[in-house]
Amino acid sequence: MFALESELKTLQDQVQKKLVAHRIQAFAVDEVNHIRYNSHLEPKQIKRMSAEYMERIFQEKDPNKIDLDQVLKIADAQTELPKAIHEYTRKAEKYATTAVTCDLLMTEFRKFDFPQSNLDEFRTAAESFVEVAKNKTLSHQENSTMLEEKIPDIQTLDPKILSELRTTYLELSNNNFSKTYRHTATGENLNMKLKLSPIDSLQRQGLKTIELAPVAVSVFGGMRVRASVGLNFSQFFSRPQTFFVRDTTLQSSSKDAFVPVLTSFVHFYAPSRKSVSVAGSFGVGFPLGGGENLQSISFFLGPSLLFGKSERIVLNAGLMGGKSEKLSQGYEIGDQYISDSNLAPTISVYELGYFIGVSFNLSGAGN
After folding, report:
1. Are 321 and 236 in contact (CB under 8 A)?
2. Which residues lie closer than 8 Å to 117 by C-beta, 6 or more apart?
3. How far is CA 207 from CA 179, 196, 250, in A?
4. CA distance linking residue 151 with residue 172, whole number of Å
């Protein structure tokens, strides 16, 4: 009787633990399916909460360590609870039968009376034992009935459900919740309108299509052509001279060291993701500062830096070519020269120099 009482106590503890584990697992399965599609949770929250529930189901933190044998083992464990409840009921019935037998024996035992003996003390102890056994029998029968009623409500996880959960566990563990979408850009700016729609297989109330604010994406790569207008400061490698005749002798004096030039540029470049793009540039300009300068066109060639995402400001530098006066007819400074007009014999020739300047892209990027 005492051994049977101990077995019932052990079985009851096991059943209670298994019931708690089943409730937690059933709750975890429902929660995993719910939080996966909760649009109010951040991706890191979904991954963290899903991992907590999955660990409760599989008793394993690393989803890569969950193999088929473990899935089948958990599925087999799901059927142990009803078996344990039936075993508890069988032993409770056996205990009740034993208690009834003890009660019958006690009834017969009461008929005997032996004077000059301590039989009364034994009878009192036996009656107390039988009474306790009766009370425990009622308790075990109530527990048995309650547990048997719970069997239909026990949600078991078959191998198919567990296999799907295992796959979901791996997907969530490796998912960075990002989507790569490729689209061929036809312009310099790509304006995207995003619309998020629930998948057809997801049947949940309250979910609806969400339209996000348009996203402007700058397009990089390829060759672009831009035009800009600005001011350059140019200087010849040899400082230009002005020539004149004084006392029948050819003489000269130096002109300005540099000349401001109003320039129009064309820039060829591949746009950069950074705030500065490097370009190759060609420009044509008119020197400022005098009538004869306006008749001399200068040419510019060199690298440029386009600043800012809109590429409005351009820094230019490089080589320049422009006309400069030189003595003609083989004369040199200091030679004797007699002329009625008293003008030195000169010729305009193109010479090289260098420049630096700033121009402004009036169109801007993307226009």
Report:
1. no
2. none
3. 20, 11, 94
4. 33
How many whole angstroms separate alpha carbon 31 and alpha carbon 43? 15
How far is CA 190 from each of CA 9, 184, 214, 216, 312, rounded to the nearest angstrom? 72, 9, 10, 6, 20
Nearest CA to 236 among 345, 333, 319, 315? Answer: 319
Please tell me what DSSP assigns to residue 336: B
Q: If you compute the radius of gyration of the chain from its CA atoms, what whole number of angstroms results?
A: 50
Copy the structure tokens of residue 219.
């397009």
- Per-residue pLDDT tens digits for 139-178: 767 777 776 766 666 666 677 877 888 888 888 887 777 7
- CB–CB of 107/173 below 8 Å? no
56, with CB counted inside 10 A (0-12, 13-18, 19+), is middle
β-bridge partners, 61: none
What is the per-residue pLDDT across 17-76, written as a single tens digit (0 to 9) for each? 777 767 777 777 777 777 777 777 788 888 888 888 888 777 788 888 888 887 777 777
Residue 357 tokens read as: 């300047």
- Transcribe 160-206 into DSSP letters: HHHHHHHHHHHHHHH------------SSEEEE--EE---TT---TT
Closest by CA position to 294, among listed 322, 266, 321: 322
Residue 65's CB: how many other CB atoms inside 10 A?
9
**Residue 79: partners with Cβ closer than 8 Å, 6 or more residues away:** 156
Partners of 244 in the β-ladder: 251
